[in-house]
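Justification of resources, computational component.

The compute hours requested in this renewal are based largely on the per-chain cost of generating structure records like the one below. Each record pairs the submitted sequence with a full structure-token output. That output is archived, and it is also reused by downstream analysis tasks.
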Amino acid sequence: MKRSVSMSKAPETTSYEEWMGSEGIPIHEELGGVGDTRLVERAPWARLSGKGAYIQLKGLKESGFTGMYVVEIPAGAHPER
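The structure output for this chain reads:
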């Protein structure tokens, strides 16, 4: 996918955000963090052979620490290596 680049305006979505969307699992946007990851809604995630979700931390883009994920991998599963 080719993206147009502007030197004066930040893109509406980053390539990382587009990649997360292509994974087909929920993306939860939170301000600063998640209180209990056990309560985060998950969906089947073929790449990791379980159920998962991304957590996108709003307001921390400048820190470079904005994304994480939570995944349930059942016993006997073979996630991507």
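The chain has a mean pLDDT of 83. Residues 27-81 form one domain.
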